[in-house]
Design goal:
Blueprint lengths: L3 E9 L6 H10 L4 E3 L12 E3 L24 H4 L4 H17 L3 H4 L4 E6 L4 H14 L8 H5 L3 H9 L6 E4 L5 H14 L5 E8 L3 H4 L1 H4 L28 E9 H7 L5 E10 L12 H14 L8 E3 L6 H15 L8 E2 L2 H4 L6 H15 L1 E2 L22 E2 L4 E8 L3 E8 L2
Parallel strand pairs: 4-5, 4-6, 9-10, 9-13
Antiparallel strand pairs: 1-7, 1-8, 2-3, 6-7, 8-14, 11-12, 13-14
Helix pairs in contact: 1-15, 3-7, 8-15, 12-13
Length: about 425
């Protein structure tokens, strides 16, 4: 079966809008959190968001949006986009340049695109409200494709003339990890030679605030302690948005083009909790099985994993559930691989999280460091016995396991290996 490699990355995130800035902030454990003006109301208890800098997308009219001048995007292109479509489009351009792809590489029957997003709640509400109040004749003909869950793949496939496999994935916070895993399958089964894997979220009031109703958002007013996975005093996650693109290519394409990959994607596993619609299994059953399946599929022993990038979002139940799963797989004597959650720096990107954090892992492997798990003052006793690192470690991890989990108990584990 063809081997699969990561050859390009593109980032628009709360900790940076290019690979160099992201790598620097990951290494230095600098977060991207700010007090978020739309949440500064007495009836909104959460105050902090992982904000995207350099973009303005608050308006429902894309004509009002602004983005960094380095990106040349035609106004007619963004008219059918959600805010996260703009973020992902810019990340896509970065990834193309990073992978050194030309137009023929991008638009052909052997190059596809898998994407993940939750759609745009802001634009869904706006267009539906306008439809009901003003009638169909005064509604935007692009309202549907700009707002529904498939908006990301619709727009990027059209904008970049993708001719290969394309679809969107919807498994909540495991969505883009699923997209990456099945993109791996497309290449390893010989169906495609190259896949773009894209994740995006608006990261604005309408995308984040509904989680306040679930009581899952941090209520901290200090951005420095709002997101603290594995800490005993954590009180919920910090929401964020953005767009990230990872380019996957077959070994034959890597050789043909003479490019140096970041790392190899060697395999993955998945499993479900079968427990609750919104709460992780308390023993981490599904996460444990996903990791075991990933290791079994690759023939890699748990002892050979050099770093685990945890899903840990900074929620009370979720972090402990994953910790128990990690202990089941790697042992509970502190001798296991270094573990950290980069959500302490970025916040939780929801469906974006999996591909964003896999991109972080690939970047860290090339730049030779392991990012620490920031903002831990007192480790939760339930997490004792795991090698949760609190500062950055120099040196490139050889084998990395990336965890993702979503509503309904969907769990994905992806394994990367250095080249």
């Amino acid at each position: 079966m063809p081997r699969v490699f990561i050859t390009g990355l593109g980032f628009v995130t709360s900790i940076g809008n290019d690979a160099a800035t992201v790598a620097g902030n990951l290494r230095a454990l600098r977060h991207g959190f700010e007090i978020y003006p739309p949440f500064q109301k007495p009836d909104i208890a959460c105050k902090v968001v992982g904000t995207i800098k350099g973009f303005f997308t608050d308006s429902v009219d894309p004509e009002d949006w602004t983005w960094p001048p380095a990106y040349e995007i035609k106004r007619e292109t963004i008219r059918s986009m959600a805010p996260h479509g703009l973020f992902a489009h810019c990340a896509f351009l970065q990834a193309i340049a990073d992978a050194r792809l030309d137009e023929a590489d991008i638009s052909n029957r052997s190059t596809g695109l898998f994407a993940a997003s939750a759609g745009s709640p802001m634009l869904t509400y706006y267009h539906h409200d306008r439809l009901l109040k003003l009638g169909p004749s005064r509604s935007s003909p692009l309202g549907i494709v700009a707002s529904i869950v498939g908006t990301l793949n619709f727009n990027l496939v059209a904008a970049f003339r993708i001719q290969g496999a394309s679809t969107g994935f919807s498994s909540a916070c495991a969505s883009s990890a699923h997209a990456m895993a099945y993109a791996f399958e497309e290449i390893s089964l010989g169906r495609q030679g190259r896949m773009f894997v894209v994740g995006g979220e608006d990261g604005n009031r309408d995308a984040i605030l509904p989680f306040a109703g679930m009581r899952t958002l941090s209520l901290q007013t200090d951005p420095d302690i709002a997101s603290r996975p594995f800490d005993a005093a954590r009180d919920g996650f910090v929401g964020t948005g953005g767009g990230v693109v990872v380019v996957l290519e077959s070994e034959a394409e890597v050789a043909r083009r003479g490019v140096a990959p970041y790392c190899e994607l060697v395999g993955w596993g998945q499993a479900s909790d079968g427990y609750n619609v919104a709460i992780s299994h308390p023993d981490g059953t599904g996460s444990r099985m996903a990791m075991e399946n990933a290791l079994a599929s690759t023939g890699i022993a748990a002892a050979d994993v050099d770093y685990v990038n945890a899903h840990a979002t900074s929620t009370l139940i979720g972090d402990v559930s994953e910790a128990r799963a990690l202990k089941s797989v790697f042992g509970a004597n502190g001798a296991g691989p270094p573990i950290s959650s980069t959500k302490a720096l970025t916040g939780h990107g929801l469906s974006l999280a999996g591909v964003m954090e896999a991109g972080f892992c690939a970047l860290a492997m090339r730049e030779a460091f392991i990012p620490g798990s920031a903002h831990i003052s007192n480790l939760d006793p339930a997490c004792e016995g795991l090698n949760i690192i609190r500062s950055t470690i120099a040196g490139a991890p050889r084998t990395v396991l990336k965890n993702s989990s979503g509503f309904g108990g969907a769990n994905v584990a992806i394994i990367l290996r250095g080249t």
